[in-house]
Predict the 3D structure of the following.
Amino acid sequence: MKTANDEELMLAYAKGDAAAFDELFVRHGQKVYNLFLRALGNAATASDLTQETFLRVVTARERYEPARTFSSWLYTIAMNLLRDQIRRRKRRGPTEDLSTVDLELSHAAPDEENAEQLAAVQKAVQYLPAEQREVILLAKYQALSYAEIAKILGIAETAVKQRAYRALKTLRACMARERTHSRGES
Amino acid sequence: MTACENFQEDLPALLSDEPAAEQKAQLENHAQSCANCAAAMSEMRAVWKTLDVWHEQTIPAAVALSIREQALLQQSVASEESLVVRLRQLFVQNPIRALGLGLLTAIIATIMLALRVDFSLIHPLGLTITGALWTALFGLVYCMLTAERDQGGLSWKLPAQVALIAMGLFIAFTCLNPMPCSVQYCSTNGPAQTFCSKLSPETSYCIFGGFYAMLPMTIASYFSAKKHARRNQIFRRGSLAAVMFVFLLAPSVYLQCTPFAFGLLIGWLSGALVGAVIGGAVGYWVRYKLA
């Protein structure tokens, strides 16, 4: 049996098929939640923003145009919410800056070495400037193409690749520093 | 652009295995011939792979359930609204139809006004021009009702909805009690007589016009405002709706003022503008505070 793609499911949902929304949520719900979680490091905020993202999908279902891929539409909504949230945090002052947010490590890797590596990755990603962090999160963890990311962020594809390259360089430097630091401690 | 710069630009795409086989082969060939690019690729690949250690977490079951419930709830609300939606699609999502609907609304509004206002003193040409202007204004607002939200986040839909509801209420109030009758009554009878009799007719029309515009605007903006509207949207949306409402209101003010002096018309319109802006902001603000 042919599986319906995201765009077909969204159109079916807009016409009243509630099961189509369930399927879309199964495909994207967890990914969107993890995008917020990785970007903000806070499960409660990630839950709220995931709810808000899908609520916006629900309320705007009649305006959805299949010419645009569903994932690009969904992540545009999610990224707008994420940017608003980061802006709000900045306004509230340095006490709620990303660097001070406790990263939730409940699903940390089982052995100690991996747990350390995970902590280093999380720290390094949080250290990235916001514009580089969003590109890395979308490219690496949401598995979106650079062309799609460019559409979502409303910038040129070349600019997205440049941000990704700079982000990788920063991550490399951060992780190297972290390794040296932990070796020094042990 | 040099081959190394090209390579550097396409390296992130190479890491996520994005380029087509031919381009991929080109990039890999370059890496074989350039030690710097080969080293960069190897380091970046290692970083890219390290990021795999950050696994996905499961979305909390309560959050997933709540999202699904909200979707179902919205779906049931939508099925109740579907007739309205279909009517909107049928009449409004087309400028010609919007103009037709504008003409229909203008005719109904004129008939309702004619029940309480004497049009015999208005020149037929003036009446025709006012009707045409009113049709165009209603048509424009109906078009805005279906306009998509633009990139800046400014939505025309809600202010247009508020302006139309406020206009309907204004016409209903006018049918119940035309404003010139209220001004005349308050200047000659009742507890406000002493105060009103001291005011010039222009000032009276300005004050009464303000109240006649503020009341429907407050009611319309309160009931149309979204509970979760942000504070910074309150004044912007309220003002936009108020300006639309005053434009819709202007022809009816002209029809009611034509037999009188020009000063009354200006007084009434300026009062209506102030009243509508205050009413729009108050309606949104009260809803925001109660949310």
The domain at 1-104 of chain A is CATH 1.10.1740.10 (Rna Polymerase Sigma Factor; Chain: A).
